[in-house]
Design brief:
four-stranded mixed β-sheet, three-stranded mixed β-sheet
Length: about 200
Amino acid sequence: LPPGWALVTDLTLQAMAATHSSTAVIGRSGISIRGFTEDKDRWTNAAARIESALPEGWTLRYQIEEIAASVSMHRQCVELFRTAMRSRKIAFQHAGASLGTANMPLLDELIQIVTDCPDAGIEIVGHTDSTGDEAVNLALGKARADTVADYFVSGGVLRDRINATGVGSAEPLTDEDSPQARQLNRRIEIELRFP
């Protein structure tokens, strides 16, 4: 590591003290920090101290969300999660439980939020359309939920935080009067739960 790395590490830890539930990665060419803060000025000053001490060629990247002091972390986590999911969905092909690459940006974003909210449990529910035998649909819904749970685990989320279930076609979003409607019903729903 270059000269000055110990000072940068110390300043990074001090900056993290100005956040809630933060994570930092110090690499060979820079620092990346994610988290929440109730005091944006305190965080901005801490970040400026890091930047002034960075070795030549290093960069500081951060994504710090400001929350009001009166807002609970739990409520903030749920709101971030719902915002990420808004107008987006994890979709599956008919009769399939494989994740397509189109799903991965959303799942990666959700994993980051889950990582920043370590007290949260994750409820994953797999849904199918109504074609075929309902016993098969229940198993397929569960397989889809398990596939998403496995992706979360591969992203560093502990498996014991996740509850994956399948409900088959019992909870449709819409009447299935077209292929597009059936595709809407083939989905995954994910929610954060707190003790």
